């Protein structure tokens, strides 16, 4: 049994283009946190559509205390978070945000192919990579990606870490860090949820 997390703030989980994967790490994490009596908000965002996802994000944040909760976004929802951060809508500000496997900020490579399968996907592009907006949106933000994500061929460190002036945790051979890449139970993300510091230790 994993140890009970010591951090007790609510956690908002935002899924990617594949939805709430039953065998994915976010569903596993939601169960682990709930078992530890942590509040978890894990909305089903529906088919990719930026307007709809931003509305669902705002609903999920409603009523949470400023600087008193965490957000973990995966894949396409990372871009939704960047749009949220760059917007003017008032809302509670999280203490920490983890952006896991964000796709490229512009359509390229497999991201463009995915756009053909999900027409609403294109509404997320281009993503605003605005260092000031990201800093205003949360007390701290951390990037997590792999070195072979087909949806971010430029690499998370170059595409996001450089313009946002933040370090990225790069996991070797982890693809899009989803169920297809073998990320069901993921102790590292549970460990991050249980600690107060920002660093993500893979």
Keywords:
single chain, 202 residues, alpha/beta, Rossmann fold, six-stranded parallel sheet
| Annotated CATH homologous superfamily | Alpha/Beta hydrolase fold, catalytic domain
Beta strand count: 6
- How many angstroms does the end-to-end distance come to? 19 Å
- The CATH topology comes to Rossmann fold
Approximate helicity band: 25-40%
Can you list the strand order of the major beta sheet? 2-1-3-4-5-6
Count of the domains: 1
The overall pLDDT, averaged over residues, is 91
The oligomerization state is single chain
Largest sheet: 6 strands, parallel
Walk me through this protein's architecture:
The chain is an alpha/beta fold and 202 residues long. It has a single domain, classed as Alpha/Beta hydrolase fold, catalytic domain (Rossmann fold, 3-Layer(aba) Sandwich), CATH 3.40.50.1820. Helix content is 33%, strand content 13%. The protein contains seven helices and six strands. A six-stranded parallel beta sheet has the order 2-1-3-4-5-6. β1, α1 and β2 form a beta-alpha-beta unit. The protein is globular and about 40 Å long.
How would the blueprint of this fold be written?
Layout: E1 11-14, H1 25-35, E2 40-41, H2 50-61, E3 70-74, H3 76-86, E4 96-100, H4 109-117, H5 131-137, E5 140-146, H6 156-164, E6 168-171, H7 187-194
Parallel strand pairs: 1-2, 1-3, 3-4, 4-5, 5-6
Summarize, please.
This protein has seven helices and six strands, in the order E-H-E-H-E-H-E-H-H-E-H-E-H. It is an alpha/beta fold and 202 residues long.
């Amino acid at each position: 049994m994993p140890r009970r997390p010591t951090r007790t703030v609510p956690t908002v989980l935002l899924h990617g283009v594949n939805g709430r994967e039953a065998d994915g790490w976010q569903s596993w994490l939601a169960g682990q946190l709930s078992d530890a009596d942590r509040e978890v908000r894990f909305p089903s965002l529906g088919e990719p559509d930026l307007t709809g996802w931003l509305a669902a994000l705002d609903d999920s944040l409603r009523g949470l205390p400023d600087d008193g909760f965490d957000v973990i976004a995966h894949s396409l929802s990372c871009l939704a978070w960047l749009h949220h951060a760059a917007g003017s809508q008032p809302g509670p500000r999280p203490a920490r945000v983890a952006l896991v496997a964000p796709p490229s900020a512009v359509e390229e490579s497999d991201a463009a192919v995915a756009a053909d399968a999900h027409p609403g996907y294109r509404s997320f592009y281009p993503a605003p990579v605005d260092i000031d907006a990201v800093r205003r949106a949360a007390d701290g933000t951390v990037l997590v990606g792999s070195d072979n994500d087909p949806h971010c061929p430029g690499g998370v460190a170059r595409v996001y870490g450089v313009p946002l002036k933040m370090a990225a945790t790069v996991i070797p051979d982890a693809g899009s860090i989803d169920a297809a890449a073998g990320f069901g139970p993921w102790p590292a993300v549970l460990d991050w949820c249980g600690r107060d510091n920002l660093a993500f230790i893979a």
